[in-house]
Each structure stands twice: as structure tokens, then as C-alpha cells.
Amino acid sequence: MYEAETNSGLDDAVESPGVEVENNTLDDQSFEDTGEQEVLDEPELEEVEHEGRKYKLPKALVSERMMQQDYTRKTTELAEARKALEAERIAEVQANEELREDYGRVHALKAQVKAFRELNWNALNAADPGEAQSLWMTYQQVQQALGEAEGALKTKVDSRLQSQRETLAKAMQETGQTLAREIKGWGPELANNLAGFAAKNYGVSQRELAEAADPRLWKLLHDAYKGRQAQQTQRVAEDQKALEEVRPARNVNKGSSPPTGLDDRLSNAEWQRRRNAQIAAKNRR
């Protein structure tokens, strides 16, 4: 009975023409397939190679990848440069240490030779000929060792100086190339002018400049040189202007007669007036 009444009430509500039921159904058009689908823009791809294999990546990622590679390359180059500089520093320290040891050995051998030379060999030979003979042989060995040590030291010093000269020459060549790119008219003549300017105004010797491989120092010197030239040019112009301002007008001396005819001392207007008068007089003849 309860179920029947419930169903009956619902049916009456649906079937009764006097009762309006809210339409909760969706519009039929919302289910219609228009046949159109949204097309997404596909990114433009570019082929790249990585570890021997080729891949296609969006251009934006390729650009970012190239930037990353460039950063990695520069970082690697900087690390290698620092490593090379550190290796050079260590080699320099070792070379200096070896030279100090060699100089110390030479100094010690020279001291021994000096001590042997100061011995009274006649007295030693008279007192103990055998001992004197033994010391004499030792003296000869020390002298030989000193000669060998001095020769080895000279070879090392010469080799190091030659290496330093080659390194400096290479650095100066690179400096010259840099200056040729950054300073207009750079060449031997300008370099000599800068050297003379530095010696005259700052007391810098030719030898000191010959060892100045840093292009920044030469550019500073060039700026100072050009600045001094500009100051001198301006000073000459100012002096000339001041001289013209105080120079009195040219006057004819009281005792002298004024120029006659066409004279270069005349003003342009007077010269032209006299010339016209001459032409007019000639035409009247």
C-alpha cells in the first residue's frame, strides 16, 4: 500500500498536465559532435647530435642547450687556464729551489777551495808529507767539483733566461697584435714615440718598456700621450689667440710717407679701389 501510493504520486506528477516539472536534462546540442577538434601548435623541432646519436628537440630547448654548452666550455677553459697557471707556478717554485741549492753548493765548494789555498803547504809537507799529499789530492778534487758545479749552474741559468726571453717575446707579440686591433695607427713608430714620451715624462727606461707585455699598460701610456698632445695643441691655440688680442694695429710711422700705387701693405678695399682707378685711367687714354 505504501509503495503503491508513492509510485502513484510520482506518476501523477509526471503525467498530470497541470504540474510543471523542471527540465534538468542537458541541451541536445551539447552532445552533438561538431567534427572539429582543437589543434595544438606543435613546436618546431631541430636535430641535434649527442654522443654520436641524433635527436630532435624543440628549438627553444636547443638554444638553451647551446647556452649551457657554451657556459660549460668557458668554465672548462677557465679551469684549464687556472690549472696551467698553477702548474707554471709550481714549476717556477721548483726551478727556484733547484737554483738555490746549486748556488749553495757552489758557495760551499768555493769556501773549501779558499780554505785549501790558505794552507801552508810547505809546512804541511815538512811535517807530514803523506798527509800533505792526501790533502793536495782532496784539494784538486774540490777544485774539479767546483768547476763542474759552476758549469752546471751556468747551463741552468742560461736555459732559464732563454726560456724567459722566449716567453716574453711571445707575450710581446700577442700584446702587439692586441694593440694593433685596439689602437689606430699602431706600429713601431708609435711604439717608439710612446717609449720616448714615457722616458721623458715618467723616467721609464727602454728596458722596462721592453718587458711590459701587458697591453693595458701600453693603452694607458697611449692615452696619456694623446692627452698631452691635445693639451699642447690647445695651449698653442690659446697663446696665438691671446697674442692676436694684444697685438696693436699696424700704423704707418709718422716720418714715413704712405704707400703709393698698389702696395701689399694696403687693405683689400684700398688696393681694389686703386686698381679700379688705374684701369679707368687707362681706358680714358
| Total number of strands | 2
Average pLDDT works out at 77
Largest sheet: 2 strands, antiparallel
Uncertain spans? 1-39
Overview of the structural elements:
By secondary structure, this protein is mostly helical. Among the domains are: 73-168; 183-245, no CATH class. The protein has helices at 2-15, 59-117, 121-127, 129-182, 188-202, 206-210, 215-246, 268-284, and strands at 45-50, 53-58. Strands 1-2 form a two-stranded antiparallel ribbon. Strand 1 and strand 2 (53-58) form a beta hairpin. Helix 2 (59-117) runs antiparallel to helix 4 and helix 3 (121-127) packs antiparallel against helix 4. The radius of gyration is 51 Å and the shape is flat. The termini are far apart.
List the topology elements.
Blueprint: H1 2-15, E1 45-50, E2 53-58, H2 59-117, H3 121-127, H4 129-182, H5 188-202, H6 206-210, H7 215-246, H8 268-284
Summarize the entry for a quick read.
The chain is mainly alpha-helical and 285 residues long. Among the domains are: 73-168; 183-245, no CATH class. Helix content is 71%, strand content 4%.
Looking at this protein, list some descriptive labels.
single chain; 285 residues; mainly alpha; two-stranded antiparallel ribbon; 8 helices; 2 strands; flat; disordered N terminus
